[in-house]
Amino acid sequence: MDTIDGFYADYPVSEDEPDAIDTDEIVTSLAKVVAEMTCSMDDGDRQKMLEQFIRDVATYDAEFRQQDQLGTAASGLRH
User: Which of 22, 48, 71, 74 is the most exposed place for a label (fewest CB within 10 A)?
Assistant: First the structure.
């Protein structure tokens, strides 16, 4: 969480568009968090964690796409 907090301290949300989502910023933040978590792991453990992350992203993507098609509520992660 410190990495994400640090990222937004360096790159605050625009006051002109507080609800605007910059997907590049989000992807960069996630990449930094994963890199920070895996940098001290051995190659095998790092690879396992990255593969799990990719599987989880694919799973949630499918879930949210299905919810979108059904018109049901989406993730509550966006604050």
Answer: 71
